[in-house]
């Protein structure tokens, strides 16, 4: 089985920064995509950023230029550096892992970490 453990959420003032981390453990395949989603009570879950094992990046338009996703393949860990945070970034952030092998795909989720941007 695969477990995703997130850390780094919290309360920050507008304009501030936070760094989220997500460590994956268990049976991790080499072909995978790790990413971050977020959800609020008034908005559907949305993809914030994702990075493939080959380094291909994908960002939500609203966070481009402010958020940076990176990964350490040796540690099976993905990071989300969030700068210039806005109140609209307030949400529960979920780590996501999609891995593929032998034509099969499996998806896993972290427990979620709260990010609150408020003065």
How would you describe this structure in keywords?
7-stranded mixed sheet; 4-stranded antiparallel sheet
Describe this structure in words.
The chain is an all-beta fold. It contains no helices and 11 strands. Strands 2, 4, 5, 6, 9, 10 and 11 form a 7-stranded mixed beta sheet that branches. Strands 1-3-8-7 form a 4-stranded antiparallel beta sheet, with no helix packed on it. Strand 7 and strand 8 form a beta hairpin. The chain is elongated. The termini are far apart.
In short:
This protein has 119 residues and is mainly β. It is 0% helix and 62% strand. Strands 2, 4, 5, 6, 9, 10 and 11 form a seven-stranded mixed beta sheet that branches.
Q: Count the E strands.
A: 11
User: Radius of gyration from the CA trace?
Assistant: 14 Å
CA-CA gap between termini? 40 Å
Helix content: under 10%
Give the overall silhouette: elongated
Task: List the secondary-structure elements in sequence, H or E.
Answer: EEEEEEEEEEE
Sequence-ordered SSE layout with sheet pairings:
Layout: E1 2-7, E2 10-12, E3 18-26, E4 32-40, E5 43-52, E6 57-59, E7 67-72, E8 77-82, E9 91-101, E10 104-109, E11 113-117
Parallel strand pairs: 2-11
Antiparallel strand pairs: 1-3, 3-8, 4-5, 4-9, 5-6, 7-8, 9-10, 9-11
């Amino acid at each position: 089985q695969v477990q995703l453990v997130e850390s780094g959420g919290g309360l920050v003032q507008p304009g501030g920064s936070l760094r989220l981390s997500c460590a994956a453990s268990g049976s991790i395949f080499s072909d995978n995509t790790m990413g971050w989603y977020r959800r609020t009570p008034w908005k559907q879950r949305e993809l914030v950023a994702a990075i493939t094992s080959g380094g291909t990046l994908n960002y939500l338009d609203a966070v481009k230029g402010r958020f940076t996703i990176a990964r350490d393949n040796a540690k099976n860990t993905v990071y989300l550096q969030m700068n210039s945070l806005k109140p609209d970034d307030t949400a529960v952030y979920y780590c996501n892992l999609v891995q593929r092998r032998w034509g099969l795909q499996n998806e896993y989720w972290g427990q979620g970490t709260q990010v609150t941007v408020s003065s």
